[in-house]
Amino acid sequence: MIDLSSHIDCFEIVDKQDKIIVSKDEQSPSKHILNNNSGFTISKIKIDNCVFKTNDGIKCDYVLKVFKDENIDYLYLIELKGKQVLKAVAQIDKTLNKLNITNQSAKKVFGRIVPIGTYGPDTRSKEFKKLDAKFRDMNGNLKCQTKNEDTI
Question: How far apart are CA 1 and CA 95, in angstroms?
């Protein structure tokens, strides 16, 4: 995984143990909530228009780095989306590649798509299933839910 510490200006939360971490976008009512019941240390990094600029191609909105000790235990790649779930799948997949995230980057790596409205057919697509398989290879999964919440 590339070192994101050189993008400290993109960190919205730096090594905090907050109980609730909310990722949201001003342009969309969708949001992702991470309930930090375990008191892990978390950093939230803005990817879109910060780590990667507009002309850098497609990318997801946020990455959450979750630490139990000194190593990254969990990584969450979050895309807040309207109704274009397949576009969100591509954005997360491209971010995995751009950041060089592998099964060595963290104990578990998760993808989260937070759409507005219906999304059923897209989650059965071969693109969604292929990306979910990538996350499963990294001991995580890919979820697409309008009320997207995780608890650690």
Answer: 11
Q: Tokens 């139990």 identify what position?
A: 68
CA distance 99 to 1: 6
CB 86 within 8 A of CB 45: no
Regarding pTM above 0.90, the answer is yes
Which pairing describes strands 72-80 and 108-114: parallel, antiparallel, or unpaired?
Answer: parallel
Residue 133 backbone phi and psi in degrees, to 5: -65, -40
Which sequence spans correspond to the domains of the chain? 4-151
- Rounded to whole angstroms, how far apart are CA atoms 55 and 113? 22
What is the Cα–Cα distance from 23 to 67, expressed in whole angstroms?
18
Name the H helices within the chain.
85-98, 120-123, 126-137
Q: What is the pLDDT of residues 66-108, one digit of tens each?
A: 998 888 899 999 999 878 889 999 999 999 999 999 989 899 9
**DSSP string computed for 39-74:** --EEEEEETBTTTB-GGG----SEEEEEESSSSEEE
